């Protein structure tokens, strides 16, 4: 599967928003967004032009796609699947994205970023109901147990990431036992539960793909 390999901080500068793509670095003083740098390729003294409706919709889609670390083809497939589900397509899209295994690993504080979580999954460090799963886009179901493989429990990156659990816990649709490095995906979240992405306007993404 193709993936973006360029500088990730550039993505945040394009969107003029912290996308939290580099974990703890995004929370530190080293984050370029703290310096209020202009978007790449633009004269910092130039006046920002008014965006078209298409431009606004595109930026919303790009933000969400980049937050979850997906390429266009994969993101569109998730959107098509969300449309086919019963209910509101925008809310369905968020539910599917949150059910991705790499995202669940990140949400459970086993990784400092979604890209790091993706690596843990690809390298076989993650178990789902006791079975090794190496597909980052694997969709977790309610009551699935997510755990760290026995031989991977001493990895420094996982131990360092778990420190965040003591500060902010996990999302309400998850449970975690940090000592045994096991957690459960209790149920699919509602759109209103995903509070850290409340500023994303999914209706604009629906309108963009509906053209």
Category from helices, strands and their pairing: alpha+beta
Q: Roughly what is the average pLDDT, rounded to an integer? A: 85
Order of strands across the biggest sheet?
2-1-3-5-4
Global shape: globular
Number of helical regions: 9
Query: How are helices and strands ordered from N to C?
Result: HHHHHHHEEEHEEH
Sheet-strand content, in percent, reads: 5-15%
Low-confidence segments: none
Radius of gyration: 18 Å
Number of strands: 5
Specify the biggest β-sheet: 5 strands, antiparallel
Quote the distance from N terminus to C terminus: 27 Å
Describe, in plain words, how this protein is organized in 3D.
- With 211 residues, the chain is α+β, with helices and mostly antiparallel strands.
- Helices cover 42% and strands 9% of the residues.
- The chain has a five-stranded antiparallel sheet, covered by helices on one side.
- Strand 4 and strand 5 (182-185) form a beta hairpin.
- The longest helix is centred in the first third of the chain and has 15 residues, at 53-67.
- The model has no long low-confidence stretch (mean pLDDT 85).
